[in-house]
Amino acid sequence: MSDLSVLSGKTYFIRTFGCQMNLHDSERVSGLLDSCGCLQASAPEDADIVIFMTCCVREAADTRLYGQCSSCKSLPPSPSGRRIVAVGGCIAQRDGSGLLTNVDNVDVIFGTHSIAHVAELLADAFADGDLHVRVEEIDSGSATDMPWHRETAYHAWVPIMTGCNNFCSYCIVPYVRGREKSRDMNEIVDEVAGLARQGVRSVTLLGQNVNSYGRDHGSAPRFAELLRRVGDTGIERVYFTSSHPKDLLPETIDAMAEVPSVMPQLHLAVQSGSSRILKLMNRKYTREQYLDLVHQVRDRIPHIALTTDIIVGFPGETEENFEQTVSLVDEAKFAQAFTFIYSKRAGTPAAEIEDPTPREVIQQRFDRLVKHVEQTAFDYNQHALNTTVPMLIEGTSKKNNDVLVGKSPWNQTVHCPVPQGCDSSSLIGRILDVHVDTARTWYLSGESVGDPR
Predict the structure, then answer these.
(1) Looking only at Cα atoms, what is the longest distance across the chain?
(2) 254-273 pLDDT, tens per residue?
(3) 87, containing H or E segment
């Protein structure tokens, strides 16, 4: 049995890469360490424990992790005189002890299904100085049952399911996160209701494919039902991610339109505008079916902020295929799009496809796409000009402490001067109406109207 008392008084620092699920996992790890008497540090040099929560969706994440681990070698001595470096998340799940091929100063490695055991792994590493690795194929302890340390008092990540069954040909996620596993609906609703009672104003429901929530329990997907029940808890703002287009049902669109607390924002990853490439990607929908979904959503929620993910340079993508992606962006009029150059991931079917397209051609296509994305984002934000939007205040601008920064219901970034006579720190987590007089590509700005609430 591990002696967890060795962790009491130790300081820790967590750096998180990747998706919102990783952010939530980090909050759980932080909460677990807090419960063991550890203290959060503001920088790696001040920490006895440095943890990297990793993502392996793109190759750049691997390189970044190796650099971050190596940089720990040059840190000054830790407060206790002994520093433990730990790697968790998707790269840890994928590589296990093989991670040591690329870094030689890691003491603890734990996979996506093993985060409930982080404290004992760290305690054992402090006790004996050996490498400790725990990578399992199924959860040996539910992360959702762990304590958590939220970074903000006004927002919470709420996982509704883990894993993915889709096996897109380019994606490593099903191999490192496992198959879909939905949480009990009553448990989720109780959690959100409890968060609302604590003063949390905004939640994001998390899953690799939230639209298939409940299917693994032997029923039809129940995500629409979950949205309605979460909407009855008293929480003010509900977001969710991610949504696979093939599973977005009419009843889910209806719930989004009819539940006031479900915000008018939808992330619907398209990945490509070419039906040929979508088939190679194993996305299970066509260009036409995706655009039909876009029209269905906009018919029910006219001003919805539609966001997406797009991959450029998938193996075999031709100029014609790429132009189909550009034209889809122009037609769908995304409020925001996250664009990526294809990254080969060993072990996925797409990694076996040879592609003669020169890298410089792919880069040129990527740059062209970004210009279209920037234009559609700019155009979308113009709809907010001369309107008043309720901003959930997140803090102040990194460039100017006299300017508040927050989010609109459409998940747009909003800037506003701190109202006269107000202390900015006391405003975090409150809602302030902002009359928008400037709409740029990536943000709105204006003057406050009325009092914060």
Answers:
(1) 64
(2) 999 999 999 999 999 999 99
(3) strand 84-89
